[in-house]
Amino acid sequence: MKYNSGQMHIKKILIIAQRSNGDVLLCSSLINALKKNYNAEIDLLVNDDTLQIAKILDNVNSIITFSYKSKELNRLNQEIEIARKIYKKYDLSISITSSDRSIIYCWLASKLSIGAIDNSRYKSWWKKIILSKSYLWDSNEHILLNNFKPLEKLKIPYFGTFDTPQINVNLRKKIQSLLDENGIKQFVIFHPSAQYWYKVYPENLRVKLLKLLSTLKIDIIVTGGNTSIDMKIKKSIPKRDNIFNFIGKTSLEDFFALSYLSMAYIGMDTMNMHIAASQNKKIFAIFGPTNLKMWSPWSNKINSSARTNKALQTYGDNTIFQGSLACVACGKAGCDDLGIRSICFESIDPFDIFETIKTQLVDDKSIC
């Protein structure tokens, strides 16, 4: 039996987002729209490696986690425990991810279940049967627009904006104190790392770009976490009076406040880029093989994202740099899909990036 939202009073909602940090962050607008419409308790079911970002989102009541790290012998117990926690405990369940597991969780959680499905009869026929409503996951549309589709199924209006989580006043004061201690006033963020090496601008080009940027006499805060990739990049950051190497020194929550207080974001196409975009910061993003249509930074200024691959393009306050090779953007995990190296980065000249940033941040008098 198919249901619609008018047939039941919705007090509890489960949103299932079993993919990356970016997917979890980019469901913030969906969560806020559901909260505004139903004033319901909203729980999240996410992978445990995205828990940190899930905790930062507004209007989330509680979080259930799934771990791929569980040993095979414990995997069944984990599935049973999650099923027990969610089984028919909700009035509405939404899966923004189309994996078999996510859809089954969605179906178990509520009589009114809405889920993303792939454009494949072989993969999706049974999902259409068990779900109350389904929508097509479209890789040619931005992730934010994909995440708005459940609202269309529920006939809930939305405004096409990317909501940013609120920043605690005490956190903002803490970060402001950190800036004051280091004598940092106006600054840009440079975020050189990513979850995988194939999304990282090569070291020789990265170092050249940082040295060029340091000549602008703008304070530059280099950010990053504590992963092996971050730690290796940390060692290569050039020493300059106006470059502050904060890699490994600040948390993800701290980054929200740093980004909020910054002038602009310069760096890779990571979740950090999306955080800055949600705060309407100037974005200078260096893209490799990533699918631009789905993962380019969203512009709240024009309610749009990038739609085509170009060596250089600007829309709203966002500027994207891409390689000039014919294969861009392939959408693979680097060349040969091995997750190691993306040759397309090597065709992006750091001097071109520098000149564009100089024009937009200095020559147009954005800095005063």
Question: Describe it for me?
Answer:
By secondary structure, the chain is an alpha/beta fold. It has two domains: 5-153, Rossmann fold; 169-363, Glycogen Phosphorylase B (Rossmann fold, 3-Layer(aba) Sandwich), CATH 3.40.50.2000. Helix content is 38%, strand content 17%. The protein contains 14 helices and 13 strands. Strands 9-8-7-10-11-13-12 form a seven-stranded mixed β-sheet, sandwiched between helices. It has a six-stranded parallel β-sheet with strand order 3-2-1-4-5-6, sandwiched between helices. Helix 2 runs parallel beside helix 7 (143-153) and helix 9 (203-214) packs parallel to helix 14 (350-363). The termini are far apart.
Mean pLDDT: 94
Assign the CATH architecture of the largest domain.
Answer: 3-Layer(aba) Sandwich
CATH topology-level name of the largest domain: Rossmann fold
| Total beta-strand segments | 13
Largest sheet: 7 strands, mixed
Global morphology: globular
User: From N to C, what is the helix and strand string?
Assistant: EHHEHEHEHEHEHHEHEHEHEHEHEEH
Would you identify the regions where 5 or more consecutive residues have pLDDT less than 50?
Answer: 1-7
Going across the biggest sheet, name each strand in turn: 9-8-7-10-11-13-12
Q: Specify Rg, calculated over alpha carbons.
A: 21 Å
The helical percent reads 25-40%
Question: What's this model, at a glance?
Answer:
The protein is α/β, with parallel strands linked by helices. Helices cover 38% and strands 17% of the residues. It contains 14 helices and 13 strands.
Topology of helices and strands:
Layout lengths: L11 E6 L3 H5 L2 H11 L2 E7 L3 H6 L5 E5 L5 H15 L5 E4 L4 H10 L3 E5 L3 H10 L2 E4 L6 H11 L15 H13 L5 E5 L11 H12 L4 E4 L5 H9 L6 E3 L6 H10 L2 E5 L2 H8 L3 E5 L5 H4 L16 E4 L2 E4 L28 H14 L5
Parallel strand pairs: 1-2, 1-4, 2-3, 4-5, 5-6, 7-8, 7-10, 8-9, 10-11, 11-13
Antiparallel strand pairs: 12-13
Helix pairs in contact: 2-7, 8-11, 9-14
